[in-house]
Structures are given as C-alpha cells and as structure tokens.
Amino acid sequence: MIDWLRSKLSRPAPSAKAETPRSSSGTLPGFLGGSPGWWAGDTTEQLRNYRSWVYSAVNAIAQEVARQRPLLMTTTGQADHEQQPLPHTHPLVRLMEQPNPWLTSWELWYLTMLHLELTGNCYWYLAPRLLGGRPTNLPAEIWIVPTPWVRILPDAREFIGGYEVSAPGAAAEYFRPDEILHLKYPNPLDLHYGLSPLAANAMTIDANTELQRARYQTFTSGQRPGMVIQTDQTLSEPVIRRLEDKVSSRFGGRDNWQRPLILEQGLRASPWTLTPAEMDYLNSAKLSRDEILAIFRVPPPIAGLIENAGLGGDIWFGARMMFCEGTIQPRLELLAQCLTRDLARRWSPDLFVTFPDCSPSNQRERRADDELDAKTGLRTYNEIRRARGLKAYADPRFDHPPEKPA
Q: SS3 for 228?
C-alpha cells in the first residue's frame, strides 16, 4: 500500500503554510520519558497501548461498530416515507461494501474505530475515480492511513491546507484536503486534531501497566526484594555479598517465595516493603480494570466479565442496552454525519449516511410501533418495509393502509 500510494499520488509540497510544522499528535503536551502519561502526545505510543484491558474495551467497541451496516439513503424531505435507500448498483454502495481490493467492509470499520479510540483520529485516503485519464472528486477506493504517518497542514483561509503523509523510511507525500477524509473525536484543546479516551486518561493506563508489572515482579522475584536481614555484628563486604547470594539463590523465583527462612548467629529478618497480601493486588487490579472499562464506557459483561452466571441472560441484555445506547450509538451518529458531509454529498446534496439503531430495547419498541401503525392504518406495509431498508412489495395494495375491521 505504501508503494502504491507513493507511486500514484506523489505531490509537491503546498506553496504556502499558515503555521510552522507541528506534531501529528495534537496539542497535548508530551511528558518527559518515564513520567506518568508521557506518551499522551505521541500517537505511535498510543497505538502501542492496545493491550491488556484497553484491548478488551477497544476491541469490543470496534467489533460492535464493524457489525453495523451503514444505510445509504436519498431524501426529498424529513419524513420516513420521503427517504429511499440507494440501489445496490450505486457507486457509493459499492464503495462501502468493498473499500479496496485488499480490505473488507468489516476490516475498514474495525480499523477505523481502533484509530479513533486509541488516537482520536482516523484518516481515510480517498483514491480518486479516473474519468478520461484524469482524477475526479469521486472516490474509487478507500485506504486507511496510519495516524502516526499524518500531519495536518493548517491554513489561515481554508482551515486545512493539506496533509503531509510520511511513511517510515519514505519521503513525505502531500495530499489535498479533498483527498483525505479526517474522522476525529472533538478536542477542546485543538480544532485540527482529535482527542482519544486513551490519551485523556493516560495516567490511569500507566497505573494499570505499573500494577501489572509489580504483580509480575512479585511472583518472579519472591521475597528477595522485600527482606532486611539485621545483626549486631560487623560484617565484612565479602560476608555480606555471600549472604545476599545465598538468600537470593534459595528464595528467589516464584517457586521459592514461600520457603521458610532459618537464621542463626544473631541474624534477624524483617520485611522491607509490604507483602503482596498487604498491598492487596487483587482488589487494586479490579479497580484498575473497572476504571479502564469506564473510560471507554464498556460494561463488564461486554468485556466477558459476568459474576452471576445464573442471571446471565438478564445481565447480558442490560449490558447490551447500556453498551449500544450509551457507547456505540453516539459513535455511529458521529460517523454518519461526517460521512454524509465529506463523502455522500460528493454525489448529491440529497444523499446521506445513517446507521440502524443497535439497541435491543429500541428494536423491540420499533417492532411494536410497526405493528401498531399497521393495525391503525397510520403507515402502509411498504412504508414500514422501506423504513427497515427492505424492498417494497410490488402489489399496489401494500401502498395503502390496511382496511380496519368493521
């Protein structure tokens, strides 16, 4: 993909820039290496944090969004019966179903959500459709450009003057604003770059990482770093080193940390730090886990955590309702509005993108409303089918409200 982008779309640098070059990570300050949250302004490091409970939360969001099929519609008004789905032969429908020869629709949405949740930004390169050998404003393919490769070039008049894409080991390429579709989460600190839940809570993520490292170190090192041996005698340096090596060899490692220690000749042992039980790693791990899931608004059952298996069905339904209505649906609405503005309107001002409501409770309510509307004659069967994205019946009787019983 890198070679293809480089060979097909090499651009000279824009002639003027309103601002000096800046980091693609936005305005969040970069902390000194080793300080908590230092990576909050580095998009590459943000992607590297796709692990542990961050992986569980972001993977759940990305999979759920990838399951939702976008509805591509044309409208002549605001009512449901004035909105019609695009035919499957429309170029926009084909583009959404097959973004490019090497990427499926599911992969497109999954990767899009990964970049949004981890970095707050996702960049689609819209490869132009050729007409008579010349590129047009209509895209023929969609490619996801990794967020760390992209730097926005602001412009005082046009807001965005272009995009600079620098793949590792390659020269920078420049793209016009209409060639890159930028999806982002709103950022109160920067109008150009988005802000991800991960970057906004970098210290919480670091705390979880350090907790995991501490737990690992506890089980691999055993009592060795947490013990002090005291004596009233004056020990020479060789004796001290020999005593240290002897204790380390016998009590180091996860298989020996509970081995009894026997001392003689006035030696006394005492703990230097808190023991694993005192530090209560288990409760700390649960607290850290719940904080990360709350950051991404993922209920524990969605991440695979069900404490009461006997109520599994009810717990799952409630978690699904919370997850879809509070987490997935707002993200789908953001995607739909951005794609309507920056993609669908390239074909016609009457085209728009929307997503079906994924909430299980709303689906039940919708079916009940459809049944009531059909019984009372408020809507025809074909209107109900069109609202669900289904093809209308050919029989003209279904274009009229059903007759009410006498």
A: strand
Backbone torsion region of residue 173, taken as left when φ is above 0, otherwise alpha when ψ lies between -120 and 50, otherwise beta: beta
Tell me if residue 400 falls in helix, strand or coil: coil
Average pLDDT, the chain: 82
Asked whether 154 and 174 are in contact (CB, 8 A), the reply is no
What Å distances lie between residue 179 and 52, 92, 96, 124, 175, CA to CA?
35, 16, 17, 8, 6
52-67 vs 105-119: helix crossing angle, rounded to 10: 140
H or E element in which residue 340 lies: helix 329-342
Average of per-residue pLDDT across 63-84: 87
H or E, element range at 376? helix 360-376
> CB count, 10 Å around CB of 214?
13
Bridge partner list, 83: 75
Q: Identify the bridge partners of residue 181 per DSSP, sorted by sequence position.
A: 124
Nearby residues of 43 by Cβ (< 8 Å), 6 or more positions away? 24, 25, 119, 121, 147, 148
- Which CA distances in Å does 365 have to 43, 359, 368, 372, 387? 41, 10, 5, 11, 14
Q: Give the position of tokens 């030696």.
A: 267
Q: Which of 20, 22, 246, 19 is nearest to 150 (CA)?
A: 22
Amino acid at 193: Y
CA 241/CA 78 separation, integer angstroms? 82
Q: Residue 239: its pLDDT value, please?
A: 80
Closest among 204, 178, 196, 54 to 122, alpha carbons compared = 196
Identify the residue whose tokens are 């693609």.
Answer: 24
Q: Evaluate the CA torsion angle 26, 29, 32, 36 in order and state its sign.
A: negative
Residue 267, pLDDT score:
74
Element (H, E) at 139: strand 134-145
Q: How far is CA 99 from CA 49, 61, 289, in A?
A: 27, 21, 36
Q: Are 402 and 381 in contact (CB under 8 A)?
A: yes
pTM: 0.73
What three-state secondary structure class fits 151? Answer: strand
